[in-house]
Amino acid sequence: MSQTPDLSPLLAPQDAKAGAEHGINAAEFQIILDRLGRQPNLVELGVFSVMWSEHCSYKSTRRHLGKFPTKNDRVIQGPGENAGVIDIGDGQACIFKMESHNHPSYIEPYQGAATGVGGILRDVFTMGARPIALVNALRFGEPDHPKTRSLVAGVVGGIAGYGNCVGVPTVAGETQFHKGYNGNILVNAMAVGLADQDKIFYSRGAEPGLAIFYVGSKTGRDGIHGATMASAEFSEGDEEKRPTVQVGDPFTEKLLIEACLELMQTDAIQSIQTWARPASPPPRSRSPTRAASASRWISTRCPSAKTV
Questions:
Q1: Measured between alpha carbons, how far is 300 from 289 in angstroms, rounded to an integer?
Q2: How far apart are CA 255 and CA 95, in angstroms?
Q3: Among residues of the chain, what percentage have pLDDT more than 70?
C-alpha cells in the first residue's frame, strides 16, 4: 500500500534568503509578501521566480522593446503570441521568432545554443508554420581570449547540429569579436516559417471543458531553474550551473513538428501553446477537441485528455 507523500517541505513558509536563492531580490520579495499577505511557500516562490525572471517577463527591457513599431497593414500578429506573423501576399504569411540564449550558451556552449534554436523552432511551428530557415547573430570576446575558441566551437556546433537534425538550414548569420564580450557572449537565433493565413494557430481561445494534451520531450533533471539562470548576472563559478541548461532533443522535436502540422490539417485544435519552462499551468482549451506542446500543450475538442 503506497504512502501519501510528505508535502510539508513544499508548503513551508520561505524567507527573503530563499527568495534570493531563487533570483528574487529584497524589493521583489516584499511585493510578494504584500500581495499574498503572508510568506510564500516553496511552490509559490518557484512560480514567482520563473514568471518574474528577465527571461519570462522582460522586466528590465520591456520599456525599450516597446519602442519598436509593431503595427502595420501587413502585421497579422505582433507581440503577445508565440511568434510574429506578417502578411507576405498570395494568402500566405511569414511567421518568425528571434530569441537570445546568451547565458546558457556561455555556461554550456553546445547545448545552450542548440536549445536556443530548438525553442524558436517550437514557437514558429506552434503558430502553424513549417520552419524553412534559421538565422543567427553571434558576439564573442577577443580571439586570443582563453575561452573564446571553445565558446565559438560549441555555439557554432550547437546551432549547426540542431538545425541539421531537424532539417532546417541556416541561411544567414554574422559573427563579431570584441573584448567587451569576453565575459558575456551574445547568441541570437531566429527561425522563419511559412503558413497559410487561414491556418494560423493561437494560444488564446481555450475554454473550460476542453481536453488538454501535453506532448513533447521526456522530462529530465536538466533545465531546472533554467529561466532564472538565464536571467541572472554573470559571476564566478557559472560553470557549476551547467545542469540548469536544458539538453536538446532535436529528433523528438522533428517528430513533434510533423505531428503538430499534420494535426493542424484537421479541425481538432482549439488553441496551442509552447510550454518551455515550468512556470504556470497551460491555458484551458475551447471545445472538447483542439491540442499543446516541448513541450507543448494542446487544448483539444476530444472528450478526454491524456499525457503523450
A1: 3
A2: 20
A3: 79
Angle between helices 42-51 and 26-36 (to 10 degrees): 120
Q: Tell me the pTM.
A: 0.76
* Three-class HEC string of the chain: CCCCCCCHHHHCECCHHHHHHCCCCHHHHHHHHHHHCCCCEHHHHHHHHHHCCHHHHCCCCHHHHCCCCCCCCCEEECECECCEEEEEECCEEEEEEEEECHHHHHHCHHHHHHHHHHHHHHHHHHCCCEEEEEEEEEEECCCCCCCHHHHHHHHHHHHHHHHHHHCCCEEEEEEEECHHHCCCCEEEEEEEEEEEHHHCCCCCCCCCCCEEEEECCCCCCCCCCHHHHHHCCCCCCHHHHHHHCCCCCHHHHHHHHHHHHHHCCCCCEEEEEECCCCCCCCCCCCCCCCCECCCEEEEECCCCCCEC
Mean pLDDT in residue range 258-273: 92
Q: At residue 166, what is the residue type?
A: V
Q: What gap in Å lies between CA 307 and CA 275, rounded to an integer? A: 14
pLDDT-derived band at 56 (thresholds 50, 70, 90) equals: confident
The residues assigned a catalytic role are 55, 101
The grid cell for 117 is 534554436
Joined grid coordinates for residue 213: 494534451
Confidence of residue 215 (pLDDT cuts 50, 70, 90): confident
Over the stretch 89-139, which tens digit does the pLDDT of each residue have?
999 999 999 988 888 899 899 999 999 999 999 999 999 999 999 999 999
Which residues partner with 98 through β-bridges? 190
CB count, 10 Å around CB of 85? 25
